[in-house]
Amino acid sequence: MATANLPTSDPSTTTFPKSREEPKKSGGGPEAGLNWPRLYAHVCANTGWTWDYVRNHVDLPTLDALNAEWRQHPPVHHLVAAYLD
Fold it and tell me: C or N terminus of the chain, fewer CB within 10 Å?
């Protein structure tokens, strides 16, 4: 599966349900605003993959592709949470 045609976005701007705390931005380079543990947790929760697997196999282009897919087709636990809210 080629990722060249997928839209790109900044993973630090990923939207979360209202019940979660918004990511905090800090000064510095482009990665300064990224909260890596939160990104790992986001992928683990949506896929069931382990923390180590995500750390070793998911790069930013892959995360961008996953987030694009999840925006179009949210994981079931997000749909249930939105329904119960």
Answer: N
